[in-house]
Amino acid sequence: MSPEINKSATDRASLLARLDGVSALDLTVTSSERRTEHLQVVAFTSPDLVGFNALPGQDLMIDVPTMNGQRVRRRYTIARLDSNKGTVEIWVALHGNGAGETWARGAQIGDVIDGVGPRGKQYVHPTAVHHLFIGDHSSLAATLEMAGSVAFGSVSTMVSFPSDDDVMEPNFQARVASSSSTALSPVTPGDGSALLQELTHFDLSIPGLHCYINAEFGIVNSVKAALLQRGVDRDAISTKPYWRLGKSNAPHGEPPKDDAPKD
Q1: Mean pLDDT across the chain, nearest whole number?
Q2: Per-position b or e across 27-45, b if 16+ CB within 10 A of its CB
Q3: What is the Cα–Cα distance from 241 to 150, expressed in whole angstroms?
Q4: How many of the other CB atoms lie within 10 Å of CB of 249?
């Protein structure tokens, strides 16, 4: 009889045993830079990243310490992966004093970090003709990676930022038929009202539209509800909550969903 798998364990051996398609990654910090007031960029190198494959929007599960000496996983989008050189970046949004933010601020060159990846099931929809990415600052790397990977049709981004200095625009592929980028700033982290207001100006009746919502837990739910109310098909909406206002993410890196609204 096979041993029972502990689905709540976050140690490397347990994750590798229960997650399909992931690899163990020993990541060495090569730089940790405060890119803007609210963004810390940590770069790694590792032989484990040579030949490593990930889809735009997928992430790494990073092992970080907590204030009480325990270990938890935090998930960050894979950005600027070079699988030939074995290098990668993660972008950490700074809006509090959580375990991941505290670790990123203090990361030192030469630190070796326990990582597992790739993780994530939200991909760029392969048959969509029009793509709309809606997110907050926490999903910046995912939004830029995914929107920048769209190779045909049209693509639009709608992202809220905590300050004007934090604004970063996507690099769209030249061959897409049309593209647009909307930056909303300054917006208090966790406040989705500006995104909801901007969404009222967007034509959601475009045939072949797929919407991606990557943001704070409450923002994801409110934007999804607005899309459904305006007639967007449920199957044309992909969601990924990155954090939850007022609550720490669980040890596996996901925001708590105990009282999530039912569809």
Answers
A1: 94
A2: bebbebeeebebbbbbbbb
A3: 22
A4: 21
Encode pLDDT of 23-69 as tens digits: 999 999 999 999 999 999 999 999 999 999 999 999 999 999 988 88
At 169-186, the pLDDT tens digits run 999 999 999 999 999 999
Q: Which domains does the chain show, CATH number per domain?
A: 12-119 (2.40.30.10), 130-243 (3.40.50.80)
Q: Specify burial of residue 236 (Cβ count, 10 A radius: 0-12, 13-18, 19+).
A: middle
What are the structure tokens assigned to 207, written together?
């045939």
Tokens for 119?
A: 């993780």
259 vs 160: CA distance, rounded Å: 25
How far from each other are the two terminal CA atoms of the chain, in whole angstroms? Answer: 38
H/E stretch holding 59 reads strand 59-65
pTM: 0.93
